[in-house]
UniProtKB/TrEMBL annotation:
The keyword Nucleus does not apply. InterPro entries: Beta-lactam-related, Beta-lactam/transpept-like, Beta-lactamase-like_AB/R. Keywords: Hydrolase. The keyword Hydrolase applies. GO terms for molecular function: hydrolase activity. This is Serine hydrolase. Gene3D superfamilies: DD-peptidase/beta-lactamase superfamily (3.40.710.10). Belongs to the beta-lactamase family. It comes from Azorhizobium oxalatiphilum.
């Protein structure tokens, strides 16, 4: 049985201190860390550093400060899909079942489930992308995306393999209303199905007031002095892939829910579907794939995790928890999330900062010392793992 200990605020401050020390005088770098466990019973949020407005004006850093979740948003899209998958189906629906999308016939056989478990065959696009218009319209809307998919010659790969496709989650946002049989847009489905029942203040990016959003930064491995404009050219078409903005309080609730610590919630019944293996396909580093979530094993690592990371200009995120023995009925022993207002993709060791911090915290929560070599820490952008072909 895993013995869990609660890290102190000083323990967490020591982890973030080296990153805070690298910021320039005119920047305001922040980290929000949430931790939780059912035994011993604790749930806590800590914030470190400071934030400022887009114009450099003052902004409060606390548990209600909004952060762009980026690809952690995919876990929300997968949860919304899982609700309709389990409550009404059909389980084997494909894009071709929804001719109202009016997209190319080469996409007809892609299953809806594969859109959210990274096995759709759509091109890997968490680096350079060839699955969007050469001349990207602004804004990039769902009709615009579907129109591109109606004329493009791009086709999914026929061989099942792991490919990280933001387009796949954008397509889930486009098809989910038809699958659910509603006239509501994807965003409203998520609000009604997830945000409201869980009491979240989360919003989608295009609804966020700029005077509440912290200035974000790029990190070049040595400093945070490069300002990052917020947003993503793919919004709102890719809201299913990365469009949610949420506070540390929101993320703590999301962590508790996914750890099985909110069993009175109707959505709790979805956890077995979300957190169990959904395809024989594995990642290049050996993780199994749930719906939206990566299911890490303890092969070559001291412990397994269920995890998801995210990054967009100026923001990064990571959420992870120890696997439950029976998702939906048994709780996860421990979990953590990290939010930051830096993209942070290249720290001094080449590891994403939020990944380093979150996994370090999970080591501490299990009474272990984090390793010096963090190259084995799980994250979706791994330079040592080539894209599947």
């Amino acid at each position: 049985m895993t013995i869990i200990v609660q890290p102190s605020e000083d323990d967490l401050a020591a982890l973030v201190a080296p990153y805070l020390a690298l910021q320039a005088d005119n920047t305001s770098l922040a980290f929000a860390i949430g931790i939780a466990s059912p035994e011993p019973d604790f749930s806590a949020i800590y914030t470190f550093g400071a934030v400022q407005r887009q114009d450099g004006g003052p902004l409060t850093l606390d548990a209600d400060t909004p952060f762009v979740l980026a690809s952690v948003s995919k876990t929300f899209a997968a949860t919304a899909y899982a609700w309709y998958l389990t409550t009404q189906g059909p389980e084997d629906a494909t894009l071709g079942d929804y001719p109202e999308l009016e997209i190319g016939p080469q996409f007809a056989d892609i299953s809806l489930t594969s859109l959210v478990n990274y096995a759709s065959g759509l091109p890997q696009d968490n680096g350079s992308a060839d699955d969007e218009p050469t001349n990207m319209p602004q804004p990039y809307t769902v009709p615009g995306m579907l129109g591109f998919l109606n004329y493009t010659s791009m086709a999914p790969f026929p061989k099942p393999a792991y490919r990280y496709s933001n387009l796949g989650f954008g397509l889930m946002g486009a098809v989910l209303p038809a699958y659910a049989g509603t006239d509501d847009a994807y965003e409203q489905i998520v609000i009604d199905l997830i945000f409201s029942p869980l009491g979240l203040s989360a919003q989608f990016f295009d609804e966020v007031r700029l005077d509440t959003l912290p200035q974000g930064y790029y990190f070049n491995g040595q400093s945070y002095d490069c300002v990052a404009p917020p947003g993503w050219p793919q919004f709102p078409a890719y809201n299913g892939a990365g469009g949610i903005v949420a506070s540390p309080n929101d993320m703590q609730t999301w962590l508790l829910f996914n750890m099985g610590l909110m069993q009175e919630q109707p959505l709790n019944s979805l956890l077995p579907v979300l957190q169990t293996v959904s395809t024989p396909v594995k990642t290049g580093w050996g993780d199994h794939l749930g719906l939206g979530w990566f299911l890490g094993s303890n092969d070559g690592a001291p412990f397994a995790t269920v995890w998801k990371d995210g990054d967009l200009p100026g923001f990064s995120s990571y959420i992870a928890f120890l696997p439950s023995a029976a998702p939906g009925s048994a709780t996860s022993p421990a979990g953590v999330f990290v939010l930051s207002n830096t993209e942070g993709l290249n720290d001094a060791s080449g590891i994403e900062i939020c990944s380093s911090l979150a996994n370090d915290v999970l080591y501490l929560m299990q009474g272990m010392t984090p390793p010096e070599d963090k190259s084995g820490y799980r994250r979706s952008k791994r330079p040592d793992i080539p894209a599947a072909t």
